[in-house]
Specification:
- The protein is α/β, with parallel strands linked by helices.
- The chain has one domain (3-119): Rossmann fold, CATH 3.40.50.1400.
- Helix content is 43%, strand content 19%.
- It has helices spanning 15-31, 51-60, 77-93, 111-119; strands at residues 3-9, 38-43, 65-70, 98-101.
- It has a 4-stranded parallel β-sheet with strand order 2-1-3-4, with helices on both faces.
- Helix 3 (77-93) links the parallel strand 3 and strand 4 (98-101).
- The longest helix has 17 residues, at 15-31.
- The termini are far apart.
Length: 124
């Protein structure tokens, strides 16, 4: 079974911000080991590929399972409503594929510790 991780960010008019997310996905792909066969990036809006296209690309590249990872810090409208609405049609289109949404980044265990650690760094 081939597994794909699709990192989903909001998207920005500032291309450098979108490139940051793409670079994070590339780093995650390097570190994924046997957990994921591919790590890709998609966006809710303002950048390409959009979520449905990202899911489609993963499936075209052989994924039997696509895990959509919301790269968001809180469960606002995008996490609670918009992302599921973008994913649902692909779940219906590909009933033989496992397409699921992982918890959003801000819900991760250790996020408080990570933020405290990051606060100790900075421009001095």
């Amino acid at each position: 079974m081939s597994r794909a991780l699709l990192v989903v960010a909001h998207g920005s008019r500032r291309e450098a911000s979108n490139d940051e997310v793409r670079a994070l996905s590339a780093l995650m792909a390097e570190k994924a080991g046997n957990d994921y066969d591919m790590v890709r990036t998609a966006f809710l809006e303002l950048a390409e590929p959009l979520i449905p296209d990202g899911i489609e690309q993963c499936i075209r590249d052989g994924a039997d399972e696509v895990v959509v990872m919301p790269y968001f810090l809180s469960a606002g409208r995008h996490v609670a409503k918009d992302i599921p609405e973008e994913v649902a049609p692909k779940q219906a289109q590909y009933p033989g594929k496992k397409i699921r949404i992982a918890p959003y980044l801000g819900a991760a265990d250790g996020i408080a510790e990570l933020m405290l650690s990051m606060s100790q760094k900075g421009s001095e």
